[in-house]
Amino acid sequence: MKLMLKIRLIPLLLYSMLLVSCNDWLDVEPVGVQTNKTFWQTKEEVEGVLASSYIQLRKSMNTMLFWGELRGNGLKFGPNFKGVGSEEYQSDMRELNILPTNDITQYKELYKGISYANHVIKLGPGARDYDVTLTKSLLNSYLAEAVFLRSLYYFYLVRTFRDVPYITDAYDTDEAEFRVDKTSGKKILESVLADLKKYATKCKPGYEAVWQTKGRATSWACYALIADISLWLGDYAGAIEYCDKFPSGTFSLGEMEDWMDVYYPGNSSESIFELQYKHGDDGLQQNNLFSTFESGGGNLIVSDYLNDLFLSIDPSDIDVRGYNLGYLNLTKCVWKYIGTETDVTANQRSVRPQSERSPNFIFYRYADIAFIKAEALIMQSIDNMGQAYSILDETVRKRAGYRKPLPVVVYEPEKGDTDQEIAAARAKIQGDALKLIVDERLKEFYAEGKSWYDILRISRVKSVGIQYLKDCLLPHVPSNKRQIKNNDLNNVDFHYLPINDDEIRASGGILKQNPFYKKFSDKI
To answer: Is the pTM of this model over 0.90?
Structure first.
């Protein structure tokens, strides 16, 4: 995959610009890596390559957002969406009209980030032979950060494509050929999970500056990622174990009236790991979240499904994330990326100033931990429903403004019920509980790149099933194509994106296409 992974070498003087502060550390383009005797000799050089992996995460964010939202049910296209040019690829993805030529299937920016992480892991230790200030503990923290970033990249790739090339080596020359076939997604996640567990405690628990504690990998970020991957793999005991590593008081959700602090200015007490931006004149730390969700009609707005969820709440409850608070009632604009505050009582609003229109993008916050543990408990047994719902009632729902608890269903078999009837009844209760949790997740995390992955994850559970996935996706499809897509969705291969034709072509035939899309790539 030469096209995907080649990283050009450029002058290494740029590395001296990558250190000291947020403005410097993440203010330059990713740099090249090399292995000759003039490099990998100082901790600054190791940290410079590590910083490049973070910068690639920034370059990949928009793609990750689309992967997690366009097939989800929390957003829809707004009045500014024209559906032409690059937007046509987004429209095709939402309507399940995805081909290997669709640019939204490009994943090369993620693999560049993986490559930088691989270089730190393989070549970083050699710098200790030259730099006595690079202590073993400091080196281990760099390696742990690189392991976290590599694992996060692969988690997105596997959830999106299922089977992808798994590359953990650092290639020594710029001209190396990278022709690698796919590895089972399950094996990849099992491998990165082992890496994370090995290095999590070697990560720093925090840094002197708040932006670093929230914007660089910490042991807490590793624990969150481990819990999330464990949930995806069906290791529910493992997910709960790592959720329980967050002691009371380490992170807090804040009060209802402080909900917008999570997004503006960001790096809140709830934040575990978020991608840092600074909307400067140079453009190197800017993103397009503000313009994508802009008030008055951005490209993406709140969906009818999500709007109905918020409108269906009990009149005695309030939800600051919802109707005319978390989003505007007329335009359905997603306020979390647009505004600076939401005043629950006076309903006053302030739009971000021009210099602050590149919000941080949050990967993990404490709300994730509450939801992961609640879902894992339900997956273990419906008898845990009370405990699972209590977690949500006392955290995310309480902060949102709810006062009434979620309704716990207690199942008691009737005399004469067969084992089969009892199993079916319990399965229905579990399936309904999982759907409820995913709806609660949607209200909490809409526009944060999680919706599609939630739908896909629980649709694989027998008590929920593929019909749930169809119910979520088919409304996006034009009516004259729904029957065809309904049939396509019966094929699990169709739930994952195709490998882009550019990658198939560059691999010289080694990289195999997703079986569902093979007919479209046979000519290559």
So the answer is: yes
Eight-state DSSP code of residue 408: P
* CA pair distance 150, 143, nearest whole angstrom: 10
Q: What is the CATH topology of the domain spanning 204-427?
A: 1.25.40
Dump strand ranges (E) for 160-260.
164-165, 182-183
Read off the DSSP letter of residue 404. Answer: S
Give CA 52 to chain center in angstroms.
19
Residues 6 or more apart from 109 whose CB is under 8 A from it?
A: 56, 59, 60, 63
Q: Which two structure tokens, joined as six digits, stand for 392?
A: 């949500």
Distances (CA, A) of 504 to 105, 163, 175, 202: 12, 14, 19, 38
Q: Which ranges in the chain are annotated with CATH 1.25.40.390?
A: 1-197+491-524, 204-427
Residue by residue, pLDDT tens for the chain (524 residues) are 443 444 433 333 333 333 334 445 455 455 555 555 678 999 999 999 999 999 999 999 999 999 999 999 999 999 989 998 889 999 999 999 999 999 999 999 999 999 999 999 999 999 999 999 999 999 999 999 999 999 999 999 999 999 999 999 987 654 455 688 999 999 999 999 999 999 999 999 999 999 999 999 999 999 999 999 999 999 999 999 999 999 888 899 999 999 999 999 999 999 999 999 987 766 678 999 999 998 766 899 999 999 999 999 988 889 999 988 899 888 999 999 999 987 655 556 789 999 999 999 999 999 999 999 999 999 999 999 999 999 999 999 999 999 999 999 998 998 889 999 999 999 999 999 999 999 999 999 999 999 999 999 999 999 999 999 999 999 999 999 999 999 999 999 999 999 999 999 999 889 999 999 999 998 88
Burial of residue 208, with CB atoms counted within 10 A of its CB: 0-12 exposed, 13-18 middle, 19 or more buried: exposed
Assigned token pair, 410:
């207690």
For residue 366, give the nearest of 261, 279, 235 by alpha carbon: 261
- Amino acid residing at 41: Q
Instruction: Give which of 102, 108, 111 is closest to 149, Cα–Cα.
Output: 111
* Secondary structure string (H, E, C) spanning 15-48: HHHCCCCHHHHCCCCCCCCCCCCCCCCCHHHHHH
Q: Using only the alpha carbons of the chain, give its radius of gyration.
A: 23
Cα-to-chain-centroid distance, residue 480: 32
In whole angstroms, give the CA distance from residue 338 to residue 290: 6
Fold classified for 1-197+491-524: 1.25.40
Greatest Cα pair distance in the chain: 79
What one-character-per-residue DSSP string does 345-395 give?
Answer: TT--EEEPPGGG-S--EEEEEHHHHHHHHHHHHHHH-GGGHHHHHHHHHHT
